Amino acid sequence: MLIQQLQQARCVNPFEELGLKPDPDGKGMLLRVWLPNAVKVVAKELSTDKSLGEMTVVHEDGLFELAMPRRKKFFFYKLDVTTDSGEYTNVYPYQFQEVAYAEIGEAYSTPEAHYNRMGAHPMDIDVGGGKSVHGVRFAVYAPNASSVSLIGEFNYWDGRCHPMQQTTNGCWVLFVPEIDAGYKYKYEIKDPLGNRLPHKADPVGFYAEQYPSHSSVVYDHDAYQWNDQQWIEDNLDDKRFRPLSIYEVHLGSWRQKVEADGRARSLTYRELAEYLIPYVKDMGFTHIEVLPVSEHPFSGSWGYQPVGLFAPTSRFGTPDDFKYLVDQCHQNGIGVIVDWVPAHFPEDSHGLARFDGTHLYEYADPRKGWHPDWNSCIYDFGRDHVRQFLISNALFWLEKFHVDGLRVDAVASMLYLDYSRNAGEWIPNVDGGNHNYEAISLLKWFNEEVYKKYPHAMTLAEESTAFAGVSRPTFEGGLGFGFKWNMGWMHDSLHYISKDPAYRKYHHGELTFSMVYAYDENFVLPLSHDEVVHGKGSILRKMPGDEWQAAANMRAYMAFMYAHPGKKLNFMGNELGQAEEWNHDSSVQWHLLDYPKHSGIQNLFRDLNHAYRDTPAMYELDTSHEGFEWVDHEDADNSIVSFIRKAKSIDEDVIVISNFTPIPRDGYRLGVNLPGRYQVIVNSDSEYYWGSNYDCGEFFETEEMPWHGREQSLMINLPALSTLYLKRVK
Question: In which pathway does it act (predicted)?
């Protein structure tokens, strides 16, 4: 019976039952409305405000009808409603069936159509007579639900008020007049058996409230006016042949502001634009990479347990505020990369887990659908609506927020069915192997879509295994990423540099082995947040020796990193030699810059970034064997490595030599390719960097003395624990 369905919020076809219809029992039209808590309703013509009469109470809970035998055609109307607590006017939602249904059949036709059709979209509807009605169209995918209601502050979170219409493609739709951006809402969903689920946030919600409500918020993405067109046009070239020095930032803890009451808070997006951008620009970084900003309920996850993939977290402001941050970055010559998490999602009750009472977004079998390391659900990468949802989200960040890159988190966990699982805890693929073919095809599609539609952008994979072709094009059998994090270099080099110099000669291969595979992928060298989290210590704390030696080790290592093939990534705090490991609840230790040791490390980072950007040899042939040549990789006894970074022009080549012992090496001979005069352009031991300023000289003349297999050589005094860059002077 209709009244019971309405009372229990179980009506699945409200457009058939409610609104203005031909009268089945007589001539003309019949208007039927459901308004819980109403005691009197008067219908009026919307265009003329003419009264159509008081409606008859069919059921005291709020069902009213009005027969209009003289009316033959549909027209728009409004309702003057009286309740025990007052009066209000209602433009009834169930007269807008065409608006609610509009293009919903295309919601899963393309990734872009998904975010343009699903979720909440403010719009104006022409109702004739020169009038229009403003409202919001809602659409949510819940194919297995027995009913869905829209709830929000506009109906006092009452699931009886706005039952949504079920469509044939599994979506539920409704247009609600007279609400706008800023209204809070959720969905009240009943599972296939009719049991009410915890209220769900919108999977395609564009904005969200924080704890405790986690409500979705209607948002208008068309209001912001961008001013970064020049940046987009200037960045259409291949990023493999450009300098990329990435500053990885956790927005909530980069810098904090102390309020009048003494409590510290995170900066807002607009405050970050004011403080972060000048700092990054001065330091010479080319890009910032922000830890996930997609809405997430638990701050301690750092964003890696997202629930609202389409919503920048409201912790720091509105979506337009985040757009402003990106826009200002671009206007100041800084690119923006965001961490994207398509591998898994948390079980929070308002999120995607068992969204319609079934495993709609996640694999049903926990051997595929549950991640034991992170206690989270794994997306079902084989289901079309999940694939569309994820690719849609990736393109959404590129279109709506103009980001320049997506760094995909936890790629290895997507590629392997047995990732972090013991025997018997995983399901093999159809061929009996451990590759997740569904995830592999999704990642290929993701990269193809990004590079086809956003040529200025790039994709980066955090992938920790030897899976082949991560950053090779899909037409060559690869996954199609632009770059891959070089986790092998990170692990080996940090293990090497953490050793006491007396033992480094026994680990020399850890420093040189990376060149064996350096060109298998397009690599980024990452010293990321994962290396400075709880229990791992800061980069500076990993260094052996006394205070001076630890700082010197770090400076030599960083200069070596900037010279090694591969793009660069450093987490915030690395650049000033932060003493303590990263804590997401507190700020970077900016006070350390009052001390020469730390300001010296910061000075080195600044100079390394600018030298890197200004020196073609450091990036021009970064992904080619032609861009690198060993001078000597076998001097393990002295813990010295030397190599040449090569540019397209031989005159731009740079010689790099690192001494990883605390012993100066006077009279060290170095073979060079060309005769002439060479100048030191970077010296990590400079007093400007809190080094010893050991007298190694600035200029060197070559001699016709064969060395290192070359006809020419020069002699240099190598400072202890240092890295030098030398360039031939014309």
Answer: Glycan biosynthesis; glycogen biosynthesis
